[in-house]
Amino acid sequence: MYLSIWCHNLNLSSRSLAIALVACVTLLYFSYSFNACLFASLSRTLQQSNLRNLLALPQRNGTSDKAAAVASDSNKTTAGVVAASAAVLPLPPSVDGAPKYQMLRQQGLRPSRHLPDTLIIGVKKSGTRALLEFIRLHPDVRAAGSEVHFFDRHYQRGLRWYRHHMPYTIEGQITMEKTPSYFVTKEVPQRVYHMNTATKLLIVVRDPVTRAISDYTQAASKKADMKRFEQLAFVNGSYAVVDTNWGPVKIGVYARYLERWLLYFPLSQLLFISGERLIMDPAYEIGRVQDFLGLKRVVTEKHFYFNATKGFPCLFKSEARSTPHCLGKTKGRNHPHIDASAIERLREFYRPFNNKFYQLTGINFAWP
Ligand code: A3P
Predict the structure, then answer these.
(1) How far, in Å, CA of 244 to CA of 30, rounded?
(2) Which residues belong to any copy of the Sulfotransferase domain (predicted)?
(3) Bridge partners, 113 (sequence order)
(4) Which of 163, 166, 187, 208 pairs with 149 at a CA distance of 20 to 30 A?
């Protein structure tokens, strides 16, 4: 009897034990799941805000492509730092940052750097910066911001180095670079040919006399005690002999440099832009450039206005600035007065070379 009562008691207590055990396990399970969720969400938030700071990722609004490139560069340099965390949690998909790529990123497409398809190879002081700034208004053109000087100064660094200096592009966009000294540097045509035989070449040219004066003005702005233009452009103080070894004069013999390029590239791969017309009618010249590059004519007269104070065409807005602006102070400088006889003598000197250049290009630039 006592045994049966004891047994009954035992049954009762083991049932309650079992119930308590189940309750405990359920409680533990819910508590664990809740904590795990909380932890994962917290660490994800921390990870993303850390990465954003680390990579200086731009926020959604007002992000320039430059910032995107910087962010992407930072991504490279901080790759080692983020690698460990990347193994635990995936990197945010927006390391390239730019909102204009957002839709493509969502489709799994990522911008990447490419060697240039098109080069602005010269000619120095003919309007090369204006050309670059104008054509890069086109959404399908992305350009390296500064002159890379790969083919003339940094060739030994190799094409990987060069590509790293290019902007990020997505499929269908053209990569462009401008270094005006390429046109006159002996080794460059062959080097460009070896990179890509199909490279398109843009060359802005301007009356070589005005170009020489512009070149001199730039040099004089950097050197206080510079001799007068007339003293440098001629040998022995008279206007009889032109100093063809003086850089500003030498560069204006365009035909001589063009012949070297034509050894490697057919004329059809070269486009000559008139520096004079780029000032008078920028939309016309940019229209030609867009056609040559197989681009839709997006950049038109609507993008330009003439700034009477500056005396040059300026932009309503660009990739870098959304307000009307002109090129910097170093573009469109006032030239010093040059003796009229010196100018006349230089014109006479250039005439046969200009004619040769017209003949080679098939274009009469009608320089005086
Ligand atoms: P100047 O400063 O002597 O007038 P580059 O960019 O190849 O160095 O050429 C500079 C020249 O570009 C300037 O020479 C200027 O004449 C010319 N140029 C053409 N379009 C221009 C623009 N919209 N604004 C300023 N300069 C322009």
Answers:
(1) 88
(2) 116-351
(3) 168
(4) 208
- 3-state SS assignment for residue 89: coil
Please tell me the distance between residue 114's alpha carbon and the centre of ligand 1 in angstroms. Answer: 28
pLDDT of res. 51? 27
Q: Is 206 annotated as a binding residue?
A: yes
- pLDDT grade for 145, boundaries at 50, 70 and 90: confident
With both helix axes pointing from N to C terminus, report the angle between 208-222 and 340-361 in degrees, rounded to the nearest 10.
120
Compute, in angstroms, the gap from residue 335 CA to the centroid of ligand 1.
Answer: 12
Name the β-bridge partners of 272: 203
- Residues 6-31: pLDDT tens digits? 434 444 455 655 555 555 455 555 44
Strands (E), the chain: 112-113, 118-122, 141-143, 168-169, 174-178, 200-205, 234-235, 241-242, 270-274, 304-307, 312-315
- Pocket probe mutation, ligand 1, options 119, 124, 128, 129, max atoms within 8 Å of Cβ: 129
Binning pLDDT at 50, 70 and 90, where does residue 225 land?
Answer: very high
Who lines ligand 1 at CB under 6 A? Answer: 124-130, 180, 214, 217, 278-279, 312-313, 326-327, 331-333
pTM: 0.75
Do the annotations mark residue 236 as ligand-binding?
Answer: no
Catalytic sites, residue numbers: 125
Rounded distance between C-alpha atoms, residue 76 and residue 83, angstroms? 11
